[in-house]
């Protein structure tokens, strides 16, 4: 229950004795990319899995607009209300409810299902509440904040099992709510092995690539500023969008390096894989003053899967991956440190090749969907 795209793939890896139905809202993100619908309930089948879509508010503002926060909140809240009604009517059909967060509002229908006798497994891939105040989504101490905190407390303490993306996230909840560590199963994001694969040819490019959102949690300014100190033959391409895109474009202009900083907008997933393969490095910038130590971003894993080394912000979980895999470098969010790391790797093609090979091996052992599907299956059966 929820809107996490990774569950489409996880479900396909579950054994045949687990029958699934997905309950989710109509597609809405990226905002403005989808036509709004007013159909209360829509049923369809995707890859053999029955899907029920419940109407909710569908924001149409571009994700760069500050006003989009209200639409996003309404999208989450209205869906949780209708999903709760669905559970009240249909709970007897199901043995287990899996609620996917973020958003935390999906915890409400999960808690109702648990109260009515269903097993409840919670999947969390974002410490949303811990960053809500910093990111401007909620005011700490407000009624909305206390409501979401209560839902989170219910999910962590009353559910039958919890899947999280990293060990750092599991430990954060153990400390926050005094629950046993064995309640958590690690299910990080997986990588599509048919799409994100190493290139058979070495790249001679001096291009550095960023793929993802341009939001408040992403420390892009020092990574862009680093190119002031790098040779003019080095370039940075940013693939994706976000509410800070215009600000960052203006920042590159102010630094006088806009001729080497390319903003490409959204591209197809197949094209993301291709551009990663053809880039010398990728960057993974995250704010270090937010509570993001748990993060192991998709952009990091996909870069590793194609064998492209990375320069990333020194976040606890990224540091853990880097130490275990040897697939890149972590640095502080300082333009000098970023520039030195990029220069160090671009001037050492043999070292980059070894890093890429290490990264590919790590993904094969830790982040393939078949492995993760087995973990989810075990968590669901243990809960039931």
Helix content: 40-55%
Order of helices and strands: HEEEHEHEHHEHEEHEHEHEHEHEHHH
Largest sheet properties: 6 strands, parallel
Total of DSSP H or I helical runs spanning 4+ residues: 14
Mean pLDDT: 90
Radius of gyration (CA) equals: 21 Å
Question: Helices and strands: which structural class?
Answer: alpha/beta
C-alpha geometry: globular
- Percent of residues in beta strands: 15-25%
Characterize the quaternary organization of these chains: single chain
Strand order of the largest sheet: 10-9-8-11-12-13
The CA-CA distance between the termini, in Å, is: 17 Å
Uncertain runs: 63-67
Number of strands: 13
What report would you give on this structure?
- This protein has 384 residues and is α/β, with parallel strands linked by helices.
- The chain is built from 14 helices and 13 strands.
- The protein has helices at residues 6-12, 68-90, 107-115, 128-135, 143-158, 167-177, 220-225, 245-255, 269-278, 298-305, 316-325, 335-346, 349-366, 369-383; strands at residues 22-24, 41-46, 49-54, 96-101, 119-124, 161-164, 184-186, 207-211, 235-239, 261-265, 281-284, 310-313, 328-331.
- The strands form three sheets. Strands 10-9-8-11-12-13 form a six-stranded parallel β-sheet, with helices on both faces. A four-stranded parallel β-sheet has the order 4-5-6-7, with helices on both faces.
- Helix 7 links the parallel strand 8 (207-211) and strand 9.
- Helix 1 (6-12) crosses helix 14, helix 3 packs across helix 5 (143-158) and helix 10 crosses helix 13 (349-366).
- The longest helix is centred in the N-terminal third of the chain and has 23 residues, at 68-90.
- The radius of gyration is 21 Å and the shape is globular.
- The model is unreliable at 63-67 (pLDDT under 50).
């Amino acid at each position: 229950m929820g809107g996490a795209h990774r569950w489409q793939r996880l479900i396909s890896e579950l054994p045949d004795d687990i029958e699934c139905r997905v309950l989710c809202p109509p597609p809405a993100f990226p905002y403005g990319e989808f036509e709004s619908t007013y159909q209360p309930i829509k049923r369809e089948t995707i890859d053999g899995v029955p899907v029920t879509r419940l109407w909710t508010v569908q924001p149409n503002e571009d994700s760069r607009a500050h006003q989009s926060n209200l639409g996003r909140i309404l999208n989450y809240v209205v869906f949780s209300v209708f999903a709760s009604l669905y559970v009240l009517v249909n709970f007897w059909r199901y043995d287990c409810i899996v609620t996917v967060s973020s958003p935390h509002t999906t915890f409400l229908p999960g808690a109702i299902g648990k109260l009515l006798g269903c097993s409840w497994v919670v999947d969390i891939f974002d410490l949303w509440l811990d960053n809500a105040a910093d990111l401007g989504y909620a005011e700490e101490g407000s009624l909305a904040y206390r409501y979401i905190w209560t839902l989170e407390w219910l999910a962590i303490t009353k559910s039958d099992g919890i899947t999280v993306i990293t060990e750092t996230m599991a430990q954060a909840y153990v400390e926050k709510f005094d629950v046993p560590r064995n309640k958590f199963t690690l299910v990080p994001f997986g990588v599509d092995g048919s799409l994100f694969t190493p290139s058979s040819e070495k790249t001679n490019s001096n291009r550095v690539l960023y793929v993802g959102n341009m939001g408040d949690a992403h420390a892009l300014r020092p990574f862009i500023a680093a190119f002031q100190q790098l040779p003019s033959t080095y370039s940075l391409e940013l693939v994706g969008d976000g509410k800070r895109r215009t600000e960052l474009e203006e920042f590159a202009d102010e630094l006088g390096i806009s001729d080497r900083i390319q903003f490409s907008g959204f591209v197809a997933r197949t094209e993301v894989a291709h551009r990663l393969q053809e880039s010398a490095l990728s960057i993974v910038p995250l704010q270090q003053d937010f509570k993001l130590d748990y993060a192991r971003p998709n952009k990091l894993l996909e870069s590793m899967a194609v064998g492209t080394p990375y320069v990333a912000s020194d976040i606890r979980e990224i540091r853990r991956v880097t130490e275990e895999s040897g697939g890149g470098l972590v640095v502080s969010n300082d333009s000098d440190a970023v520039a030195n790391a990029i220069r160090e790797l671009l001037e050492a093609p043999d070292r980059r090749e070894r890093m890429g090979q290490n990264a590919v091996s790590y993904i094969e052992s830790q982040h393939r969907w078949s492995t993760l599907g087995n973990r989810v299956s075990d968590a669901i059966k243990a809960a039931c």
